[in-house]
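Case study: Molybdopterin-binding protein.
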Amino acid sequence: MKISARNQIKGRIVEVTKGATTSHVRIDIGGAIVTAAITNEAVDDLKLAVGKDAYAVIKASDVMVAVD
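Here is what the predicted structure looks like once written out:
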Protein backbone atom coordinates (compact mmCIF):
# COMPACT_ATOMS: atom_id res chain seq x y z
CA MET A 1 0.00 0.00 0.00
CA LYS A 2 1.16 3.52 -0.76
CA ILE A 3 -0.26 6.65 0.81
CA SER A 4 0.31 10.35 0.12
CA ALA A 5 0.63 11.40 3.78
CA ARG A 6 4.31 11.87 4.63
CA ASN A 7 3.97 11.69 8.40
CA GLN A 8 3.89 7.93 8.89
CA ILE A 9 5.27 6.70 12.20
CA LYS A 10 5.56 2.98 12.91
CA GLY A 11 4.76 1.76 16.40
CA ARG A 12 3.03 -0.91 18.43
CA ILE A 13 -0.57 -0.86 19.63
CA VAL A 14 -0.70 -0.69 23.43
CA GLU A 15 -4.44 -0.18 23.96
CA VAL A 16 -7.73 -0.40 22.05
CA THR A 17 -10.78 0.99 23.85
CA LYS A 18 -14.11 0.57 22.07
CA GLY A 19 -17.01 2.93 22.70
CA ALA A 20 -20.53 2.91 21.28
CA THR A 21 -19.36 3.86 17.76
CA THR A 22 -15.77 5.07 18.10
CA SER A 23 -12.61 3.39 19.35
CA HIS A 24 -9.49 4.97 20.79
CA VAL A 25 -6.33 3.26 19.60
CA ARG A 26 -3.10 4.07 21.45
CA ILE A 27 0.18 3.46 19.59
CA ASP A 28 3.60 3.54 21.27
CA ILE A 29 6.09 5.19 18.93
CA GLY A 30 9.38 4.89 20.77
CA GLY A 31 8.13 5.88 24.21
CA ALA A 32 5.63 8.52 23.09
CA ILE A 33 1.97 7.55 22.79
CA VAL A 34 -0.18 8.67 19.86
CA THR A 35 -3.94 8.23 20.22
CA ALA A 36 -6.27 7.90 17.24
CA ALA A 37 -10.07 8.01 17.32
CA ILE A 38 -11.44 5.73 14.60
CA THR A 39 -14.67 3.83 14.01
CA ASN A 40 -15.26 0.45 15.61
CA GLU A 41 -15.78 -0.90 12.09
CA ALA A 42 -12.25 0.23 11.12
CA VAL A 43 -10.80 -1.51 14.19
CA ASP A 44 -12.53 -4.73 13.18
CA ASP A 45 -11.63 -4.43 9.46
CA LEU A 46 -7.94 -3.79 10.26
CA LYS A 47 -7.95 -6.50 12.96
CA LEU A 48 -6.28 -4.08 15.40
CA ALA A 49 -5.19 -5.58 18.70
CA VAL A 50 -2.74 -4.89 21.52
CA GLY A 51 0.78 -5.94 20.57
CA LYS A 52 0.24 -5.60 16.83
CA ASP A 53 2.47 -3.26 14.78
CA ALA A 54 0.67 -0.32 13.18
CA TYR A 55 1.40 3.06 11.66
CA ALA A 56 0.20 6.40 13.01
CA VAL A 57 -0.50 8.37 9.84
CA ILE A 58 -0.82 12.07 10.56
CA LYS A 59 -2.44 14.34 8.00
CA ALA A 60 -3.12 17.87 9.18
CA SER A 61 -3.48 21.20 7.46
CA ASP A 62 -2.19 23.13 10.49
CA VAL A 63 0.27 22.57 13.29
CA MET A 64 -0.15 24.88 16.26
CA VAL A 65 2.47 25.72 18.88
CA ALA A 66 1.70 27.07 22.35
CA VAL A 67 3.72 28.04 25.41
CA ASP A 68 2.82 28.92 28.99
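For the exam, be able to explain this: The radius of gyration is 13 Å.
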